[in-house]
Structure formats: structure tokens, C-alpha cells
Amino acid sequence: MSMNTTSPPPLIDVRNVSKSFGKKLVLNKINFAMPAPSIYVLKGANGVGKSVFLKCLLQYERIDAGIIEIAGNPLSDRISLRSNTFFISSDHQQFIELLTPNEFFQFLKEIYMIPFERIEQVSHLAEDLNVLTELNTLFSKLSFGTKKKIQFIAAMLICPKLLICDEIYEGLDTDAVLFIQQAYQHRKLQGMGTLLTTHIRDYGEEVADLIFELFNNGIHVVKENIT
Amino acid sequence: MNLSAFRKLLSIAYDDRSSNVTKQAIIDFCSLGFLMSLILLGIKNFGIATTMEYYIGIHLALNLILLFFTAAVLKSIPTLSKFVGSMPIKPAAYFYKVYLVSSLKFFILLEYLIAALILLWNDTSLKTVIIFVILLEAIRFLRLYFEFLFGFLKSLPGLSIWFSILFFSCSALLYVLNKKQMLSLSIFQYSPSVAAYIIIILTILGLLTGPLLAAQQMNQFSRNAMLYFYFTSKLMKLSTRILYLNKHTKAMLTTHITRLLRNSDYMGRIIRIFTVVTLLSCFNDVVLAPFFNMPKAAFVDIPYMICLVTFLTLQLEYPIFKNSYLDEFPITTRKINLIIDLIDAYILVLFLIFLMLIEFATGNNAIQMTGVIFLSFFSFYFISRSISIPQKKLSNINKLFYYFQFFILSIPLKIVMDNVPASKWHVHLTVFFACLSLYCIRRKIFIRKRD
């Protein structure tokens, strides 16, 4: 699958990317492009390589061949990559585990130089997501769903051009799912992009511009929502 | 549950294979033969009393070695407790049955029986023989008790920290007492009867408190380390206030310190480094310095020991933890490495100051010497940091390769430290700047430019 765009450059531009672990080929010459204001959903069975693909996009996994550019910059420009992206992982929260959500937000505020008015949103977001009382609890002590919500609030603080969410809907209550989907749409209106993976049927589909599926080591369009 | 059923349960828990039984029997038979030969040889050459004393000494040493290995692995008792905890067994029954199962073994009973017969054959009174066997058994029991105690410490939040603090406190106390000449480390001067009383009192305490330790481990629930958490939060806020750095660096530094303080593995390693160095310092003062009659030279080795142990344990064993997560944020690699180097140096300097204070308090040192020690410490530190270690798990061969790099680079420095007197401070200062240059150059060359 390839999408040719001229100007501005796509938010994600993947060209002929391959990745294998030993003899096992996971991604085979993948082509993928995602414009800035968009919501894309990536589906696929367990073990087909969805998480690997996302990690390759953010250079948490090295690719064997091909080119990936995020917001027009190559992955080798690490500072640009990290400034423009944020990853909500399904199982990898090594950094936050030993901090409280408030300490984590404070860290993000200084590192990303987040303006004061956006910091003020933390309490509103925490209230909407029903995690206000958990902001001073050690992250490792939080429940699975609450951990996802805290990561989501962090993403909203940073406001990255590209937000990548790996299985974000797992462990979330229905209200939180609706709230997060509205946030995706709001991000799109502001010109930002969101790419997410999900196992849960129907979740994310109604807000997605394009739904892909990863199978046979390649990415294929499944459904296009014309709005 | 009777004892044989419990024995079967243990074999399931430990996944004991039947093939190990023969192997174990051969080992037991050989060790029994060896011990009995020693007794007979001892009686012939030293007499009954000395032989019994040495036999108990060997028995104690063997059990300490076994305890060391068990404590180092720290797997058996916690795993077993978790397994037994899911069954309807009371903690007291669990504790005493583990003890009985490990003690009521054919070869152990045979050992006691033969030892008792030999002693009785050589006109030893029955009372003495009974006390002798009780002492041997008490030592065996204490080993098991300490395994339970270590298992309990492991179940605490911040497990490595508590475990390490215990060892560090003991060794630091030993060091201070030794420096103050309040305690002699020569154990041979104490009467055997004092040691016997201590062992028996500890055994009684162990028999009473053992079931409580077992109960703690069987009912494993999540314990919240609120006090430690509160302390680290306060420390983080305090460090934010006192540091006059830009906001970006300050955020990195304070967050990194907080994470390190709350990471029990990391802190455990730091405290264990201190413990090893303290014990080595004790060894320096007690054994090396009097024997070679060169206390100053022996003391200069402390910075080397600190850096060597730090290098081996932190840099070679724990490289992944250091900065892989910081890679997730838009922070330059150069800054990440600088922050990590600074924090490690800060922690080690605190420890060095602790040792220096003791030296000054005991009036053993001069200011000029102190300056040289600080210079040598930082020189060794720069050498250890100048070796670029990849952010991945290292094989033992790789570790050996990096250790040799450190060793070879530090040889010239050690020669200078051992042979140039403290009065020639300009030589030490030159060496210090040479090491600093090496650190800067190698950091610049070898650290991959990822940004």
C-alpha cells in the first residue's frame, strides 16, 4: 500500500521497510503513509507484528531495510523524533513505574517545556477520566486501566504531532473509551495525527479515517471512512 | 500432613529428580568419610578437646558457606513458601517440618552417631558428647533459620535495600569499631564456651521466632513502602530547590535520582558496593597493613577498590537500567551520560567522605594525604567512566574484556599512587588531569552520536 503526497510531507512515511527476527520475517517491504490530520487504526491477529511495526516507527526496534520518516525527518534525528511523537505502550512503562503521575507530569513539563495553561488541564483531564485521586500514587501500584489513562493524560500534555497508541482500549471502561475517542477527533481538528492498534472489535473504527490490517507480513487497507 | 508426605511435597516443590539421589548419596558418603578421618587424625595429634573445637569450627564454616550460597541465590525459601502458602499447612508446622526434613537425614544421623561413638570410645563423658552433638545441630538449625530470615527480608518492599542495609550496617559498625580499636577481629581470642552459649541462645530465639517468619512469607500480600516513598518524594523536592541548574537539566537530574532511590535493585547494588569496600578496608587494616607494615600505601588503595567494585557491579552488570528509558525523551545522549556520571560520582564521593571522616576521627591521616586520595579517587573514576559500555546485556567474555580494559588502563596510575609520595602533589595533579583528558577524549570518540 502506498500513498503519494507532495506537500506538506506525510506525518509518517514508510518505504520498503523490512524487519525479521532471526529467520522469522515479520514485516516484508512495507509501504505506508499517514497525513498529519488523521486517525488511523491498525488491526491484526496476535503475533502478526503490530507492536513491532509501531516500535520500528519510533526506533525502539531497528529495521533491517527501508526508510522511515516522521514529520519529514529521518529516524536518525532522534531529538526531532522524540519531540514530535509520543508512545502509549500496552506493557512497557519502565520509566514511569517508579514515579507518581504528578512527578511524571512535572518531569514532562520541564523536558517538553509545556506551557502553564496546558499543565492546568491535568486536573480537568484526571477528573474526566476518574483518576484524580491517583495522581500521588506510585505508578506501579495503579491498576491496568488507570496506567493507560495516566499515559493518555501525559500524551495530551505533550500534544505530539504523532501519537501512537498500542492497544490503548484494553482495560478501559466505556466512558473512558468515548472520552479518548473524542480527544483523537479533537487532535485531528488541530492538525495532528493518531495511529492506534486494537484487538477490540468496533473500538476506534467509527472515528478512524482508515483501517488497516497487518497480515502476510504486509499492511492492507480494510476500510475507509469518508467524512 | 505427616513428615514423609511433607518430604514428598518438598521434592515436588524443588522438582527433585530421582537421578540426583545417587549422586547426593556419593557426595554425602565421601564427606562423611572425610570428616571422620579428620576426627581420628585430630584426636591422635591434638587431643579430644582441640579436635572437638576444630570440628565445630569446620562445621560452622561449612554452614556459613552454604548460607552464603543460599542467600546469594535467595530462591529456595521464598519459592517454597509461595508453594506451601497455597496449601492448608500452618506456618509453625511448615517451619518445623522443613527443619526436620532437612535435618533427619540418614547421613546426618550417621555422622552424629559415628562422631559420638568415637568420642565415647576415647573416654569423653556422655554429657560432653551430648553438648557436642547439640552444638552441631544448633549450627545447622541456625543456617536454616537465616535462610528464612533472608527470605523474609526479600519479601519486604525495597527488598534489596533492606537486605543490603543490614549487611552494610554490620560491616560499617565493624569498620568503625576496628578503627576505634574497640574490637579485635581476631576470633581466636574468644573462649569456645562463649561461642557455644551464643549459638544455643540464638537457636532458642530461632525456634521461637521461626514460625513468625514462615507466616510472613506464606501470607504474601502487597506491602506498601510508604515511609521510603515519602522520603524519596521529599528528597526530590529538596534537590529541586537547592540545585541552580537550568530547568531541563534539573528535571532530568531530580527525576533520575528519585528513580534510582526507589529502585531497590540499583540501591541494593550501591549498598553492596559500600559493604564490599568497607570489608576490604577492614581487611586492609587488620591483615595487610600490620603484615606489610605500610598502612599509608594500603589506604591509598581504597579509591581503587571503590572504582573497581563500582565498575564491575554497576557498569558491567547493570548497563541497561542506566539510560535506556531516557532515550524515550528528547534529551541529548551527551547530557544523559553526563547526568548519570555525575550522580554515580556523587554517591561514591559521599561514601569516600564517610571513610575519610573515620580516618580523621581516629587521627590516622594528614591533609596532604587526603588531597592525594581524592585525586586518585577521581583519576580512577575517570578511567572507569572512559570505557564505553554498550547498553545491552553483556556476556561473561565481554565483561572480562571490559574489566581488562579498566585493569590495563589503571596500572600506570596505581604505580604512580604507590610510589610517588604525597608531598609531590604536582605529580598526582598531572596524573589527575591526564585521566580527565582521557575521559573527555574517549567519551567524545566512543559514544555513538545518536542525536
State the secondary-structure class of chain A: alpha/beta
Give the biggest beta sheet of chain A.
6 strands, mixed
Q: What's the mean pLDDT score of chain A?
A: 86
Count up the helices of chain B. 18
Taking Cα atoms only, what radius of gyration of chain A do you get, to the nearest Å? Answer: 17 Å
Report the helical percentage of chain B. Answer: over 70%
Strand content bin of chain A: 25-35%
Order of helices and strands of chain A: EEEHEEHEHHHHEHEEE
- Give the terminus-to-terminus CA distance of chain A: 21 Å
Domains of chain B, number: 2
Please state the overall shape of chain A, judged from the principal axes of the Cα atoms: globular
Number of extended strands of chain A: 10
Keywords (chain B): Membrane, Transmembrane, Transmembrane helix
GO molecular function (chain A): ATP binding; ATP hydrolysis activity
Keywords (chain A): ATP-binding, Nucleotide-binding, Transport
Organism (chain A): Paenibacillus algorifonticola
